[in-house]
């Protein structure tokens, strides 16, 4: 049976972006499958009483310094988005819709949005900026908006988020190997270890 990492993610988390840059390599090295599960981080926070560490000034300053250290270690670009925090409700509906209805374009879609947020520092709180980013990468903004308004897509994202909370998720990124939960991009070594032992 193929080993699997279930990757619960929300685009609005810079730590999740860093995990996203590393998990494919870990899965390739361990012969594992990476399963992307979009969730709404705001919904997880509301259900669990958690909040972004960036909401605590001293912790937030430390967190972004630490993420910068990891970006250098991973040799990937990272720019703190000046428009943070990002309301990701429509973005995560769009991601869920692409996964359900255009799975062949899902990876490119997620990649363009992660890069817009955490490399280019674009303001994806603004619909016109989202439309511009999508157009630049060959996606039809109106088609994507239609996916965001699809009731089955809304329900799927809600179900993913509720399932995440039931499984013990309280933030992003969260990864499961079997029933083991690993939280944070600074726990990827444990993810790899679990995959090698699975």
Automatic annotation (TrEMBL):
Catalytic residue positions: 13
SUPFAM superfamilies xrefs: Thioredoxin-like
A Gene Ontology BP annotation from the UniProt entry: naphthalene catabolic process
Reactions that this protein is recorded to catalyse: RX + glutathione = an S-substituted glutathione + a halide anion + H(+); 2-hydroxychromene-2-carboxylate = (3E)-4-(2-hydroxyphenyl)-2-oxobut-3-enoate
Cellular component GO terms held in the UniProt record: cytoplasm
Broad class of enzyme this protein falls into: isomerase
EC number(s) reported in the record: 5.99.1.4
Alphabetized UniProt keyword annotations: Isomerase, Transferase
DSBA-like thioredoxin domain residues: 4-195
Gene3D superfamilies xref list: Glutaredoxin (3.40.30.10)
Gene Ontology molecular-function annotations: 2-hydroxychromene-2-carboxylate isomerase activity; glutathione peroxidase activity; glutathione transferase activity
Pfam family, one: DSBA
UniProt record similarity statement: Belongs to the GST superfamily. NadH family.
Record protein name field: 2-hydroxychromene-2-carboxylate isomerase
Originating species: Pseudomonas hamedanensis
